[in-house]
Design brief:
The structure is a homodimer. With about 260 residues, chain A is an alpha+beta fold. Chain A has a domain of about 150 residues: Nucleoside Triphosphate Pyrophosphohydrolase (Alpha-Beta Complex), CATH 3.90.79. Helices cover about 25% and strands about 25% of the residues of chain A. In chain A, the strands form 2 sheets. In chain A, strands 1, 2, 3, 4, 5, 6 and 7 form a 7-stranded mixed β-sheet that branches. In chain A, strands 8-10-9 form a 3-stranded antiparallel β-sheet. In chain A, a hairpin with a 5-residue loop joins strand 1 and strand 2. The first copy, chain A, is elongated, with a radius of gyration of 19 Å. Chains A and B meet through strand 5 and helix 3 of A and strand 5 and helix 3 of B. Chain A binds a DNA duplex (27 and 27 nucleotides) through helix 5.
Chain lengths: ~260, ~260
DNA sequence: CCAAAAGTGTTGGTGGTACACCCATGC
DNA sequence: GCATGGGTGTACCACCAACACTTTTGG
């Protein structure tokens, strides 16, 4: 019983979200929600697209492992990272029992520019995903509903935006995630009422209309962990990454 | 590398909630929220109280394992069972890396009567817990906030009550969980507005005041899985249990 | 001046809280 | 009849969606 003994194997995967400006059908630039996927280089599921992840190292915390694999596959570091759910149906991975602790993450839109993207890592539009390996399609669907639900009662949209942003950009993020238009007037008031928005005093020039104010989020409100007592506490998994090292395929790849 | 090789071990634990009538300080019978704990019979944490649970068998689903260990320790079967969170800090269990997928469950109050309770299994009042092994105290705190949060936007209180119940009993459950008094008039309207309550037509006699109506929950509303798409779907882990079998201590016990 | 988006004001509906009040039963 | 909770009616307040309206820029 070397490594296929009577034990489930533990993997950690992450659903990563970012906002990308994408040309709309009528040419207007509407932001869209995007997700990076990696191509599987081994069986099972060879060639299929899957969520970035890897086996859990014995001495690494779950959250650190999620942040690290995220960084290894995309080159990015998450602004927001939270556990989503643990998937462990006995038959979800052919051949071997695999239990996956899945996280979801948000990254800044301006970082996506310099994100890795090659034959084996690609960003997909949220409503135009390819066929996924294992049960990853269901996982993404679940992560999407969690993101949408949480966006409405929490203020996490800032994790998808650069340091400063206009009210319209913030609204664009909400509209892209919720997939519906929001009233600009009411949206502004709701956001201002949270007290987490700080007017930088500067304005964005160069538009062909009245220049909008630039805001940033009050850091006093966001790093303070939400009322979830025990876990959560989205630290950034500050695990450094030295070069493009082999990644997860030291021996075999999990789902 | 027999079984202490470089892999984390996977355990499944469950925080079980039930309502018990408990004599109040002034003699009045107010329901209270109770949690069963098991005494650890091995190191680490020998003698301490801990959440019921066990190692994950290779061919059993996470939810089935949670339901089974729940049944083995308490003799009860859950009316509600949902995944809570996965705890996996590297140092949470001395000596060995253990990752615990934790569920939370609700059981009917009338079943608690015939629940197991001996030297090694005991029910504790939610606000009078003993010192717990490992990080189980934090886990219970987290489960409590989840229960409280979910009670307010979902209708899960029925899982803590018998088939039929009065409006006051239902309110008593909410008050016990939320730890505050609720306005009877407003509570009634709120509950009636959900449309999930069915008046059985019968009334509870024997009180020394106007006999209250007996309700039951509309089964058309509760088994229908909530809008959580992927996981959830609280099936009852229908794994039979043949007698008081050795349980999890075939080789060693997890946390 | 005009287009276009920023930003403000006002109104009506909805849901929740507080609280006054009547109803039906046991004793 | 009277104490006790069961059950109803109603006024008020906070929040939110809808939408009319004013402001400020670029061209």
């Amino acid at each position: 019983m070397s490594q296929h003994d009577a034990q489930a194997r533990l993997a950690v995967s992450t659903v990563i979200f970012a906002i990308s400006p994408e040309p709309d059908d009528d040419g207007a630039v509407r932001p869209s929600l995007r997700i990076p996927l990696v191509r599987r280089l081994r069986e099972p599921g060879l060639g299929r697209w899957a969520l970035p992840g890897g086996w859990l190292p014995v001495h690494e915390s779950l959250e650190a492992a999620a942040g690290r694999t995220l960084n290894e596959t995309t080159g990015l570091s998450p602004r927001y990272l939270e556990q989503l759910y643990t998937f462990g149906e006995p038959d979800r991975s052919p051949g071997e029992r695999v239990v996956s602790v899945v996280y979801w993450a948000l990254v800044h839109s301006d970082e996506v520019q310099r994100a890795v993207s090659d034959d084996n890592v690609r960003w997909f539009d949220e409503d135009d995903l390819p066929e996924l390996a294992f049960d990853h399609a269901a996982i993404v669907v679940y992560a999407l509903t969690r993101l949408r639900t949480k966006l409405e009662y929490s203020r996490i949209a800032h994790a998808l935006l650069p340091e400063t942003f206009t009210m319209a950009e913030l609204r664009g993020v909400h509209e892209a995630v919720l997939r519906r238009r929001l009233d600009p007037a009411n949206f502004r008031r709701t956001m201002e009422a949270t007290g987490t928005l700080v007017d930088t005093g500067r304005r964005l020039a160069g538009t062909r209309h009245r220049p909008p104010a630039l805001y940033r989020f009050d850091p006093a409100h966001s790093p303070a962990a939400p009322p979830s007592p025990a876990p959560a506490a989205p630290h950034h998994a500050a695990s450094a990454l030295e070069g493009p090292r082999p990644g997860t395929d030291s021996k075999d790849t999990p789902e």
